[in-house]
Design a protein that fits this description.
about 150 residues, five-stranded antiparallel β-sheet
């Protein structure tokens, strides 16, 4: 979708995803090896009381759902930046759901623009567990001034 066709307020629902314990722990062991993500006995003694998902794993699960509905589509040039805010713990067995909404956009140059999408991820209880804002560079419609 070209920059001009993307509207602030465009919103998509993300398909639900269940957090699989074995995948969650394997991810943490490889990419975020801290005991409250990898050691069940240690995790029992924490405030959460059980193993928690790495925030990066939680995000990756829902990002995979977002990209299937990629707002920029074939006109996407590149990701520009990303911000994550971890709000609450996620546990094995949680069913995550989310929304992705365009919250801002601006022209970058005659050839492309940038839009920001906010992804909100909720757990099985409907509690907000993670927010993300991603800036994406997308092509503008060709004009005489901005020919591709």
């Amino acid at each position: 979708m070209y920059f001009e066709d993307i509207k602030i307020g465009d919103k998509v629902e993300l398909a639900p995803v269940t957090v699989d314990k074995e995948e969650m722990v394997a991810f943490a062991k490889r990419y975020n090896p801290v005991p409250f993500h990898t050691d069940e006995e240690f995790a029992k003694k924490t405030k959460a009381g059980a193993l928690t998902s790495s925030g990066l794993y939680t995000f990756a699960l829902m990002w995979a759902e977002y990209v299937t509905q990629d707002i920029g589509g074939e006109q996407t040039i590149a990701g520009l930046s990303m911000r994550l805010d971890f709000k609450a713990p996620v546990f094995a067995g949680d069913v995550l759901r989310g929304t992705a909404e365009v919250i801002s956009k601006h022209e970058r140059n005659p050839y492309n623009g940038v839009f920001t999408v906010r992804i909100d991820i909720f757990n099985s209880s409907g509690e907000l567990v993670l927010t993300n804002e991603t800036d994406t560079v997308v092509k503008r419609k060709p004009t005489e001034e901005g020919k591709e």
